[in-house]
Design goal:
By secondary structure, the protein is an alpha/beta fold. It is built from 21 helices and 20 strands. Helix content is 40%, strand content 17%. The protein has a nine-stranded parallel β-sheet. A four-stranded antiparallel β-sheet has the order 13-20-18-15, with no helix packed on it.
Length: 601
Amino acid sequence: MAKKLIDVMDTTFRDGFQSVFGGRVLMNDFFPAVEAAKNAGITHFEFGGGARFQSLYFYLQEDAFEMMDKFREIVGPEADLQTLSRGVNTVMLDTGSRESVDLHAKMFKKHGTTTIRNFDALNDVENLKYSGERIAHHGLKHEVVVTLMDLPPGCTGAHDVAFYEKTLRGILDAGIPYSSVCFKDASGTSNPHKIYETISMARRLLGNDTHIRLHTHETAGVSVACYLAALDAGANGIDLAASPVSGGTSQPDILTMLHAVKGTDWDLGGLTQKKILTYQEVLKDCLKDYFIPPEATQVSPLIPFSPMPGGALTANTQMMRDNNILDKFPAVIKAMQDVVEKGGYGTSVTPVSQFYFQQAFNNVLFGDWKKIADGYGKMVLGYFGKTPVAPNREIVELASKQLKLEPTRENAIDIADRDPRKSLAHFKIMLQDEGLETTDENVFIVAACDVKGIAFLKGESPLNVRKNSDMEETKKEKSVASGPQDYTVVVNGKSYSVQVAEGSGANISVTPVAPVAGVAPVTPAPAPVTSGVEVKSTLAGSVFKIVADVGDEVEKDDVIIILEAMKMEIEIIAPQAGTVQSIDVKTSESVADGQVLATIG
């Protein structure tokens, strides 16, 4: 009897990179591994979209469309190349207009995509209608998604089989065109029994001809059990990754799953251990210089209490490393449980997972619910769609007061359509103002990346790849900088050359400096006296935008600078009314916690 063929999508080059490296892997570094994967018999790849779209422009000085074109050239015309899209957000963190949602599908089709997996973190079917229709309109396969997770202990009202059936029936009743159905658990927190019951329900509802697949992560340690349960229930496909970007925060390893199905009636796409071993060796060599954070290789028994997706977990811990606040991560994860419980049970997947993390971060940094994060606040107020259950009433009131917004039940895409800043005309003007071409690609880059897209197109975006060799070089530079330093000091009118070094065994020499004839001693000028109030950073980050100029008159609580930290825009406000006496930072400059940013007098 022939075995049942299970389609395997290799997520290595999208979700694997996102889950381990925060998406920061240069294309020419990994392309040899793509060739090796092709030679191993893999024909279905996740190769772009999601956070791997923006990360190329933000951190890698690379064009995602160029990367997609080259990927297609390597694997050939027959391979199924899949991307990830967030409903009306597409590959942005904010809701797009209908124009940009349409342009997303058009551009991804143009640049080699076969299938778009399309999800909404709130499981709001309204957010899937137009996005799904445009994907199909442009000749792409639409893999419609129901998003999964387990709720923290004691929480009820959503994320059970009945809730997923209601969502799936809503998709069917809406007449959204689709070619396959995916159940996506970005946090890997769903338990195997619920997976079995959910896939069984979907199979009964959809019939035998619909392709059903499960996507999960190893983050909570139950991914292989969930995949086996899904296959038992009738799933047709699963997602796997290759070492060293498999397991931990990523998908289960291909070799692990091949081992798990031994002796069963399932054939994982005809893949063999020998060929996959060769592929993985090539991939390991490609990535040997990349820093793998230890948390990326671990599973956590605490994740079901605070469901943090693998793709967001390492991105957040790496940003915390960059900002020297990684010590706060355990407290933030612990605070997430309360944030999820009160937020309306949106699935913890981008962008909602980031909203959860940002609010938990604020609760740790500023005190519980003292500062409502912009994204979280808009979510509970209804600006991204309808949450699975009603958010906590007190939190809604706090969000409304702090963000100065009223709750809404209007469709998110209708709100976006009214916003002139989200029109394609607006993005074209931004390009024209910078003397840049208004090609469809450039327009979409700016729509997705805003001013960072402009910076990329002007050749001004930063390169921020975490390689071991670069980190070692930085350590050496710091070591050299911390070596013996020569200074000239004046004591009782006499000059001395002083060498200063760290360590109790360091030799320190003090040598009198002969006066130079005809040169009078220099008295240091007194520091300027100012009555201004210093405006300081509230956390480490980088300067996203400078709103006020020196000489501007500002009122108390006016925004003068916007920082970016932890994927948040942090508004720095004037502590008093007055005149801006100084702006002490520049755009894109990194700043430390407590650093003086400006002075107001």
